């Protein structure tokens, strides 16, 4: 038996299971609280609107962990980094993989049952089936809240109270995000409306894409005709006027967008200063690195397959590469950049002797792998605290570090009244950029069209190298 007091992990999904595993393998006891399977007041077992079983780490939709290619794909890189950090989720996914080409897809039942068994049989983990409805007034001094996009209502109310008004969202209304380097700056230009300086003193904070009347009309037709995703019954989204889907705005009248987010006023095209554009699409810088721009006002329910086709009709975006497409979903997530510190702790409780960490999708990452990765780091941070060790976040050149950076500081606020922080998948745009190489390791010239791929490979190699150094350094600290 150990005399180290336990860390309480709430939510036995992907992030909570991974966090528990990391804690327990560091020698710290864990009490994992999962509400699914606990009896509710009407005698039936509690569940969520999306889960089907009581298994830990159940995959609620697709069975894919996406690309497993670490050299050229950011999520594949994240897989590799997690494997190097003894991830339970990755070990079980590898063990239960099914053929899926370059992707890592799993047998969902085999995968979830393997995670459940590993957690239940770990001598330092106790699983309690109950809905947690309070985060304070308990004797818990170290907590990881990993309750996911479908956090129960009672706990959401508690999180809202602790985090403060406006810091918990129940829906994500996501505008597409574009890799800056894929925007054609021979057509687009940088300028803020009326050259108004932003908080950073920059009067050219936006990238503007001009449209003629014919281009605007063709765009509206494509928007209205494009296939839209259906809402699930339980997912009906109350539209707020500040974040109406762009196609809903267009349905209200063909001119609505020209008087809304696409209004062509206060902006002058330096290449054609005397000609007024009929409409202008604006993109706003999304991350401190300047590698990503989001399309202002373009939150949408257009199906993913249709979005790239429709948005590439916009002059300047014909070859746009999307770091993420738009969407509108039920999703509980906190405004992490404002309320969490770099070690994923709720800042406002740090002085009260309670370490309340958040992990998983609720922190504003998106996807099975990303949620698990943040669970892994939250578990390691909490373990280091319990054992009196110092632990820094992984460098931002790694996929893990880039994700932490995104949720705790890398995102740039847009100055709108509503926060612009929205959940994000891992992508190379979150990592500090590198110049695309012109020659390969053997000094051979790399053809122009292959340089983007070569750059991804360099970024992946840098990431794994830096992760290894960071792991060595952390190991030395423990050993010393
Ligand atoms: C409908 C839907 C479909 C999705 N499809 C995909 C997809 O195809 N691919 C993808 O990569 N991502 C998908 N996601 C996004 C996301 O990656 C997953 O939801 C992922 O499971 C998030 O991991 P998590 O650990 O943060 O949350 P979860 O895996 O949801 O785990 C949270 C756990 O907390 C428990 N819990 C909640 N409240 C309490 C409480 N008060 N007390 C105790 N336990 C509680 C829940 O029962 C659950 O087990 C989807 C999300 C949703 C909602």
TrEMBL record:
Enumerate the residues binding FAD: 11-16
Catalysed reaction(s) here are: uridine(54) in tRNA + (6R)-5,10-methylene-5,6,7,8-tetrahydrofolate + NADPH + H(+) = 5-methyluridine(54) in tRNA + (6S)-5,6,7,8-tetrahydrofolate + NADP(+); uridine(54) in tRNA + (6R)-5,10-methylene-5,6,7,8-tetrahydrofolate + NADH + H(+) = 5-methyluridine(54) in tRNA + (6S)-5,6,7,8-tetrahydrofolate + NAD(+)
Q: Which cofactor does it need?
A: FAD
What is this protein's name? Methylenetetrahydrofolate--tRNA-(uracil-5-)-methyltransferase TrmFO
Top-level lineage group: Bacteria
Q: Which Pfam families match?
A: GIDA
What does UniProt list as this organism's lineage? Bacteria, Pseudomonadati, Pseudomonadota, Alphaproteobacteria, Caulobacterales
For this record, the Gene Ontology CC terms, alphabetical, are:
cytosol
Function, as annotated, reads: NAD-binding protein involved in the addition of a carboxymethylaminomethyl (cmnm) group at the wobble position (U34) of certain tRNAs, forming tRNA-cmnm(5)s(2)U34.
NCBIfam families recorded: gid_trmFO, PRK05335.1
The source organism is: Asticcacaulis endophyticus
Signal peptide limits: none
Q: Name one GO biological process term.
A: tRNA methylation
Q: Which InterPro entries match?
A: FAD/NAD-bd_sf (IPR036188), MnmG-rel (IPR002218), MnmG-rel_CS (IPR020595), MnmG_N (IPR040131), TrmFO (IPR004417)
Q: What is its EC number?
A: 2.1.1.74
């Amino acid at each position: 038996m150990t005399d180290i007091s336990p860390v309480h992990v709430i939510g036995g999904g992907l992030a909570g299971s991974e966090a528990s595993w990391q804690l327990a393998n560091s020698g710290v006891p864990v009490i994992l609280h999962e509400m699914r399977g606990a009896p509710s007041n009407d005698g039936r077992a509690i569940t969520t609107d999306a889960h089907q079983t009581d298994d830990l780490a159940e995959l609620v939709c697709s069975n894919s962990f996406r690309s497993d290619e670490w050299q050229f794909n950011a999520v594949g890189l994240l897989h590799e980094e997690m494997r190097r950090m003894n991830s339970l989720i990755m070990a079980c996914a590898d063990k239960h993989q099914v053929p899926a080409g370059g992707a890592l897809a799993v047998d969902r039942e085999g995968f979830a049952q393997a995670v459940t068994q590993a957690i239940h049989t770990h001598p330092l983990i106790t699983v309690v089936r109950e809905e947690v409805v309070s985060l304070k007034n308990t004797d818990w001094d170290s907590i990881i809240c990993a309750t996911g996009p479908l956090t129960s209502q009672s706990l959401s109310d508690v999180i809202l109270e602790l985090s403060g008004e406006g810091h918990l969202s129940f829906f994500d209304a996501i505008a597409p995000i574009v890799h800056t380097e894929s925007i054609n700056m021979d057509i687009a230009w940088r300028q803020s409306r009326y050259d108004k300086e932003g908080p950073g003193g920059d009067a050219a904070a936006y990238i503007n894409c001009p449209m003629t009347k014919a281009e605007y009309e063709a765009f509206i037709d494509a928007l209205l005709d494009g296939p839209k995703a259906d809402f699930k019954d339980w997912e009906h989204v109350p539209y707020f006027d500040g974040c109406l889907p762009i196609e809903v705005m267009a349905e209200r009248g063909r001119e609505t967008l020209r008087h809304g987010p696409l209004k062509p006023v206060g902006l002058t095209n330096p290449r054609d200063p005397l000609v007024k554009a009929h409409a202008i699409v604006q993109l706003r810088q999304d991350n401190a690195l300047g590698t990503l721009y989001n399309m202002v006002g373009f939150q949408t329910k257009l199906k993913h397959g249709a979005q790239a086709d429709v948005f590439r009709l916009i002059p300047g975006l014909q070859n746009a590469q999307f770091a993420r497409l738009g969407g509108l979903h039920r999703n509980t997530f906190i405004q992490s950049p404002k309320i969490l510190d770099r070690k994923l702790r709720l800042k406002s409780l740090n002085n009260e002797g309670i370490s309340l960490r958040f992990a998983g999708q609720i922190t504003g990452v998106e996807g099975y792998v990303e949620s698990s990765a943040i669970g892994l780091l939250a578990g390691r941070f909490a373990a280091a605290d319990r054992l009196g060790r110092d632990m820094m976040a992984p460098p931002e050149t790694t996929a893990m570090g880039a994700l932490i950076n995104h949720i705790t500081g890398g995102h740039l606020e847009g100055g709108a009244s509503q926060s612009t922080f929205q959940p994000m998948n891992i992508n190379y745009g979150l990592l500090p950029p590198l110049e695309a190489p012109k020659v390969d390791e053997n000094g051979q010239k790399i053809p122009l069209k292959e340089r983007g791929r070569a750059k991804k490979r360099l970024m992946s190699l840098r990431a794994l190298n830096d992760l290894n150094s960071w792991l060595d350094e952390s190991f030395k600290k423990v050993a010393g």
